[in-house]
Amino acid sequence: MRRLLRYARPYRALVLGSLALLLADGLLQLAGPALTQRVSDVAIPNGDGRMIMTSAALFAATLVFQFAFTYGETMLTS
Questions:
Q1: Which residues of 5-17 are buried (b: 16+ CB within 10 A; e: fewer)?
Q2: Rounded distance, CA 33 to CA 39, Å?
Q3: Which run of H or E residues covers position 28?
Q4: What crossing angle do the helices spanning 12-29 and 31-38 adopt, rounded to 10°?
Q5: Per-residue pLDDT tens for 14-66?
Q6: In a 3-state reduction of DSSP, which class is residue 30?
Q7: Nearest CA to 51 among 65, 72, 36?
Q8: Cβ partners under 8 Å of residue 52, min gap 6
Q9: Alpha carbon distance 59, 53 (integer Å)
Q10: How far, in Å, are 51, 64, 73, 78 from residue 15 at the CA level?
């Protein structure tokens, strides 16, 4: 492990940036199922169209950010 860390030391900023983007992408992946659950458990039974549209917009935004984070991670690691 020490040998690996010694080789990675010059690339510390790239490794940390890539790990941060990976963590953010992982957290955003949890938003989709949570939004879907909220819509199916709360918004649809109550007939709340506004909550459905808001959740759809938030879901779309999470997909855009996921793409950006994945792209950034790919750029840092290639």
A1: eeeeeeeeeeeeb
A2: 10
A3: helix 12-29
A4: 20
A5: 999 999 999 999 999 999 999 999 999 999 999 999 999 999 999 999 999 99
A6: coil
A7: 36
A8: 39, 43, 44
A9: 10
A10: 39, 23, 10, 11
Is residue 59 within 8 Å of 31, Cβ to Cβ?
yes
17's tokens: 């940036």
Amino acid 5 reads L
Going by C-alpha positions, the residue among 20, 25, 28 that lies closest to residue 58 is 28
d(Cα 36, Cα 42) in Å, to the nearest integer? 10
In one-letter notation, the amino acid at residue 46 is N
Question: pTM for this structure?
Answer: 0.82
Q: Which residue, chain included where needed, has tokens 């030391």?
A: 9
Closest CA to 53 of 44, 62, 45: 44
